[in-house]
Amino acid sequence: MAALYKRKLEERTVYRVVGKSVSGKRKEKTFRSRSEAKKCLASLIRAEERGENWVEQKSFLELANEYMQASAVGRDGKRPLEISTLHAYKHYLDAFILPMIGDIPIGDLNRDKLIELIILLKGKCKSVKTAEHALNLVKAILNWGVDRDLISKHCARNLSVQPNTRGPKKTPGTFSDDEMRRIYASLRCLCTYGSQRDIDRWRAYAPLVLLLATTGVRISEALGLRWEDFSEDYSHVSISRRVDTLRRGMTQEDRVGDLKTTNSYRRLAIVPELRELLVFKLRTSQSPWVFASKSGYPKHYHSVRNHCWVPLLEHAGVDHRGFHSLRHYVASSVMLEGKYLEAFKMLGHHTASFTMTQYGHVIDDGSDRFSEISNDLLDKFREQRSEAVL
Predict the structure, then answer these.
(1) Residue 112 pLDDT > 70, yes or no?
(2) 372 occurs within a structural domain
(3) pTM
(4) Domain limits for position 113
(5) What single DSSP character describes residue 107?
(6) Which long-range contacts (CB under 8 A, 24 or more apart) does 295-300 make?
């Protein structure tokens, strides 16, 4: 039977939880906090009641597999994760995490092992952001183990992949006003000159580019639009779904999913020129999807990128950036006009503070007015001091 013992070491007190392994060998863990020790003791007692013991703790691989299975059907009453998310999680596990810590019992995952994992992630992942996502998955799996009383605590809570060095915030890649003018001029040119086949193709893509450049919607949200999402006069559109990239094991129906957050569901205005393009496109459309492939399903991201976006940027003589740069351009333009709430609403972020964090760097920091502000404060202080003397 597991037991808790109190012990004094020089000037501090520690608490030991003692149990037995399968072979009857004594095994113990030491805690500085009595509450943490009691949690561990309670967890071991429940494990003993289930017929388990200290050594029979699950390996991280076993816990990760259970976590993935539960996520696919919906963990703890939540809705199932998107197939694309599960696909990304599986890649993180197979490529980075499991080869390093998969065989280790979850109760034996110490800080040193996790720091080794972080070093591995920094070396193997393409970016710090990818490494951070992988570490967050490890934390989520271990948190799930804590919630299920499989372990009392874990050492990954305060660990991070991000470097401690500080510097100016990295500006998201976006286009300048001049580059946007060149892109728009090239789009008009391609929709006007050339063979009739090329003109028709570019006229089919033009509404998508203009929609992204004037509303800031994500490419996945744009590809998920149906004709029913527009108002009768095409002056507004409701963003209510997204379409993912087709991956192995997915059907066309699996590509369609819910938006990221409640705030992602929003109603946006359509500029007059875009309305005309949409009405023209509707005349020849035979699919309920606005941007449909020949099969009638939503177009694929890579198809749009290769047949529209990359050729358009080459024609405009603009350095290549992804579709998301159009979203950054919209956000920066709106924020520069001082319309912070409008930017938050248009972009569909989960919080306004996230919008400010992402794009606050484009706002005038007011440094030119600091001297004026300081002088104003001094004048107020002088006035108050004069009144006090009188």
Answers:
(1) yes
(2) no
(3) 0.70
(4) 57-167
(5) G
(6) 297/252, 297/255, 298/223, 298/224, 298/243, 298/255, 298/256, 299/223, 300/245, 300/246
